[in-house]
Amino acid sequence: MTVRMNRQIYGMLAKRLDEADLGSVPDGRGIHGRKWSLGSLLRAVVGGMVAGKQSLAEVEVMSASLTAPVRRMLGARRRVPDTTMRDTLLRVEPGDARRSLRSLVRAAQRRKALTTDGLPFGVVSFDGKHFDIPSVDDWYAQRQTASEGTPLVGMVRTVTVALTSSRARPIIEVVPIPAPTNEMGVFPAALDAYCAAYSGLELAKLVTYDAGACSAHNAAEVRARGLHYLFGLKGTQPTLYADAQRWLGSRSVVEANATTSDRERGLSVVRRLYLGEVTVVLDGWEHLRTTPRRHPHRCAPWDPGDAGPSASRAKLSKWTEPSSATKIATSSPACQLRGSAPSSGCSSSVGTGVSKPLAPRPHPRRYAPWDPEDAGPSSTSRSLRTPARGSRRIHEVLS
Length: 399
Hints:
Blueprint: H1 3-16, H2 38-50, H3 56-63, H4 68-74, H5 82-89, H6 94-110, E1 123-133, E2 141-143, E3 154-163, E4 171-176, H7 183-197, E5 206-209, H8 216-224, E6 228-231, H9 238-248, E7 258-264, E8 267-277, E9 290-294, E10 298-301, H10 309-319, H11 326-331, E11 334-335, H12 377-383, H13 393-398
Parallel strand pairs: 1-5, 5-6, 6-11
Antiparallel strand pairs: 1-3, 2-3, 3-4, 7-8, 8-9, 8-10
């Protein structure tokens, strides 16, 4: 990372770091032997992570070469030992650190930096994340080791909440998943944490989650809080899945309820959305109204005569205005259909749902045009794979 980039980063931190109010985080250390304030240590860690440092040792090296203005901003008068940062982070409760995140979000809301991007309502997306560590505590880290002869592996899991209706798509809440439960069981607690943290702000009216939390109980929890839901659906719920396929039916391309075309790295990506109206009230799903399905991406070389991505966004915005089709999706809950093999009642393979255009763009390698000289489907499947993400990055920063 260049010096110029570092200056840009710390310029941003100088404006926004005070909004996090890191000095108000409760200090779990003993009163004796404190040489550093908790706020200074947390500022140094945040500065190092934003600057792209991969470990606390790299943060220590960075702290030894800071300029005087940056030292005053971070509160690091001298080199910050990595062992001191590690011992301090181990004594900070996750719930206490989340207060700083909420302070940042509220400050952004006050300066109107979280406005919706082309939609008449806000959308928050819940999603489970995890990374592995070589230790367990049977609370934050779930034991993954199958037998005594294999290396010890623990999995730290969280439910992250992102405001996907905002152009920046910031993460506004993080809830740890206790070891005895899973995403399905912790969803009501995560929903409560989000509602309690941002009560009165009305950031969103629609809650989305993948099939990992799709259940009648979780849907009822969302409706009980005056919100709407959009859940993923797989074949693991065969009854609801079969009903959704029947409601969607078999429709041609021209029968799509909405179509968008975007330019992504020289390719034209077309997305088609189909809506199926619920015709039978299911036990436990009395609030279910619509089953949307998104057609798989179709790729073609970009046509210079196309109106461009701005027109695609305008089409999506126009579609989300009140109409006979969108009243079902916006004013009533929806259930997202997902699967691998379509039945005879579906015209194409089942994809993700209406909230997908709001998510970050998938990796461009998934849209590679078909090469007739390719060795075959097996090599094509390898070429379409996306690079693995570094799941251990957070652990390396905290270790």
